[in-house]
Design brief:
Number of helices of chain A: 9
Number of strands of chain C: 0
Helix content of chain A: over 70%
Strand content of chain A: under 5%
Shape of chain A: elongated
Structural class of chain C: mainly alpha
Largest sheet of chain C: none
Largest sheet of chain A: none
Order of helices and strands of chain C: HHHHHHHHH
Distance between the termini of chain A: 59 Å
Number of strands of chain A: 0
Helix content of chain C: over 70%
Oligomer: heterotrimer
Chains: A mainly alpha (about 220), B alpha/beta (about 260), C mainly alpha (about 220)
Strand content of chain C: under 5%
Chain lengths: ~220, ~260, ~220
């Protein structure tokens, strides 16, 4: 049994590009899923009953489906439904956005709801409108609780980008496994793949820990 | 001056104007009747204390007064006009009432000074300098000028409640509503809050106070209303309620508290 | 667009076997990761000092590496080093256990640390040994407090079994893929799969919620 670790170095360009795609996917998904999550959360909190029901149904649906299934579904079904021919990257992005928006919506909703009713009452007793109370009293406090959870979602998202490899998006997992198939260097490539994810993911996990300590809420 | 004369003196000074009028107020939560027809007058400069067992409707009445809760029957009049139903008008009325909560409800992300300045700044649209000036004055009034830059988490319960009183006072209200202001405090800090409230009363502020502090009600109150099951079972000057109650319910309630006068 | 769901009914046993494998893998890996996670947490809390950094390294590494990567490595790379052959199912079981045990360990640790220290002091004052305190006073309260997080982890476990399709475990995701490819009716097949997963997952989270609400008072000191 011989190992040839130089394979990893030889393909470093492809791996670096693939890592770039992974990071890009993560950023792009969050950039869309945060505003969308805010909108859905607002609909759930302040919308009319039918709107609330639809928003809740959306959130509950995507929180109770495996992401990999959503990826496949987006790949096969979305073109037929929308009549558009989307690239695998766009399809993967769509699936990730649908999934993460649902989690973000829940995070924002729970964060706002966690602020005691008494705070809103105290603000209103001073004569503030609901909007003012939300802006000046609820949101500043809710943000402290939301940010660590959002950071945690970010790290999960970073890992979940590996799932779009099943529809041949050229991110890290797909490219690493392609190289493995071409070179037959199974152990070397798979270990390198794990190592790269570890190198990027470990600091992110530690950052989340720091954020949870920094924004810890003491009642 | 004996207590009754003090009350009459206060009423005379303020012209006897009715600041708040409750007539047949009814409030329901689903099937539960929280208020079953409450009649009460609050005159200018008076300190009205609402006492009674937990769940008897005292806090509910207070929260209906500034529209935090809505009533299903009866009337509430404030300064001669019925309490508005429309949210914007109701907000304007709230600026003329100050409310102090049992759980203080200071805004934890703001310093003491910022807490007190928040009302003038955001609701009365004063500029920052004017709002801060008012806030400093109010903090000094409650004896906490040196705590201005501190966050609520660094203050004791009694200090937080005094800041909450200052916050309400900064709006220059016509009446102050206190919802069990000392129930969540350690015994050592109750005194400092009650002293601030007595000081306000001596200065002629109209106050409606829900409290379990009978000594305070006896000494500072001008008019006591005893609640039970959503109704006022007896109301009158402290001398009557505490020394010579006319109803069985009042006697029961006071004896349960161990009140021996 | 008309849908022909007969493709589902015609292949019910094919899909059904997938569902069975999904459930089996979920339950098995749920149990093994729970046991392993408990062991890891106890090692971290009460074990030798020098072991702690290694345990923490393991837990944080599993937070950094995707499940897909763990499963693929376990199935393709581990046999090369260890010199064993394993079926996709076993590889998935091992991979899921290793990955999820890290999360389980964190849940246990958080649960134990959330029990008020006064509880231990009271038990010590009665004359209990450390082992007795952990077993009779701390663990029962901690377990109640951990329930919501474990419910969430169970939900994640079931969702992660779908990733095992990548290493050819014949669970529901894999069977759906195959059928969708053969029948050229991906909409019907994947919609059915979505329905099944939702019907499995939704009661799990709701059920844990409701059960927790009943017993929450047991964990409050």
């Amino acid at each position: 049994m011989t190992f040839d670790w130089s394979v990893v170095w030889q393909h470093r360009d492809a791996l670096i590009a693939a890592t770039g795609t992974t990071i890009l996917l993560t950023f792009a998904t969050m950039a869309i899923a945060v505003p969308c999550g805010i909108v859905v959360a607002a609909l759930r909190l302040y919308g009319w009953a039918p709107v609330r029901a639809i928003a809740t149904a959306y959130v509950e649906l995507f929180r109770n489906l495996p992401l990999i299934l959503v990826v496949y579904w987006a790949f096969y079904v979305l073109p037929i439904m929308t009549g558009l021919g989307l690239s695998p990257l766009a399809t993967g992005l769509a699936a990730l956005v649908l999934n993460v928006t649902a989690y973000n919506a829940e995070t924002f909703r729970a964060g706002i709801n966690s602020i005691r009713r008494g705070q809103v009452e105290a603000a209103m007793a001073l004569g503030m409108s609901r909007m003012q109370a939300l802006r000046r009293v609820v949101l500043p406090q809710a943000l402290r609780r939301i940010l660590p959870v959002l950071a945690s979602t970010w790290v999960s998202l970073f890992k979940d980008t590996s799932l779009v490899s099943v529809i041949a998006v050229t991110e890290l997992a797909y490219v690493a496994m392609q190289i493995r198939a071409q070179t037959f260097r199974v152990l070397e490539m798979l270990t390198a793949m794990a190592a790269i994810y570890w190198l990027l993911g470990y600091p992110q996990a530690k950052l989340v820990d720091w954020m949870q300590r920094r924004f810890a809420v003491t009642e | 001056m004996n207590p009754e004369s003090q009350t009459q003196a206060r009423r005379a000074k303020a012209g006897g104007a009715k600041i708040i009028r409750y007539r047949g107020v009814i409030k329901r939560y689903g099937d539960f009747q929280a208020l079953a027809g409450v009649d009460l007058d609050v005159h200018a400069g008076e300190v009205v204390c609402l006492i009674g067992p937990s769940g008897s409707g005292k806090s509910t009445l207070l929260r209906c007064t500034n529209g935090l809760e809505s009533i299903q029957g009866g009337d509430i009049e404030f300064e001669g006009a019925a309490l508005p139903r429309e949210e914007r008008e109701l907000r304007a009325v709230r600026t003329r009432m100050g409310m102090v909560f049992q759980s203080f409800e200071l805004f934890p992300h703001l310093t003491a000074l910022a807490n007190v300045a928040e009302g003038p700044r955001t609701v009365l649209a004063k500029d920052q300098a004017e709002a801060n000036r008012r806030a400093s004055a109010m903090l000094a009034k409650v004896g906490l000028a040196d705590k201005a830059p501190n966050y609520p988490s660094a203050l004791s319960g009694g200090q937080q409640q005094r800041v909450a009183i200052a916050r309400a006072l900064a709006m220059e209200p016509d009446v102050m509503l206190f919802d069990e202001p000392t129930s969540a405090l350690d015994p050592e800090t109750i005194g400092e809050v009650l002293n601030v409230m007595k000081q306000l009363a001596d200065e002629g502020m109209t106050m409606v106070v829900v409290t379990h502090e009978m000594t305070f009600a006896r000494r500072v109150g001008d008019w006591i209303a005893v609640f039970d099951s959503g109704r006022i079972v007896e109301q009158g000057p402290p001398a009557q309620i505490f020394d010579a109650p006319t109803t069985e319910r009042t006697r029961d309630f006071l004896s349960h508290l161990g009140w021996t006068g | 667009m008309d849908f022909d769901f007969s493709v589902i009914t015609d292949h019910l046993s094919f899909l059904g076997s997938g569902i069975a494998v999904t459930l089996l893998l979920s339950v098995l890996s749920g149990v093994t990761s729970l046991v392993a996670g408990l062991a890891v947490a106890l090692l971290r809390l009460y074990g030798p000092r020098w072991l702690r950094p290694l345990v923490i390294l393991y837990i944080d590494s599993m937070r950094a590496i995707p499940v897909l990567v763990v499963l693929v490595w376990t199935f393709f790379a581990l046999p090369i080093i260890a010199g064993v052959t394993m079926s996709p199912f076993v590889a998935a079981l091992i991979g899921l256990t290793v990955h999820l045990a890290a999360y389980a360990a964190e849940i246990v640790r958080a649960g134990v640390e959330s029990v008020r220290p006064g509880q231990s002091r009271a038990a010590l004052a009665l004359g209990m040994s450390q082992a007795q305190i952990v077993r009779r006073i701390i663990m029962p309260q901690a377990i109640v407090r951990m329930l919501p997080a474990f419910g969430s982890l169970l939900s994640i476990t079931i969702k992660d079994t779908a990733i095992a399709s990548v290493i050819a475990v014949l669970e529901l995701m894999r069977q759906s893929e195959t059928l969708a490819g053969q029948s050229f009716q991906p909409i019907e097949v994947f919609s059915f799969a979505m329905l099944v997963y939702f019907l499995i997952l939704f009661p799990v989270t709701r059920g844990v919620d409701m059960f927790y609400r009943r017993v929450a008072h047991l964990g409050r000191s």
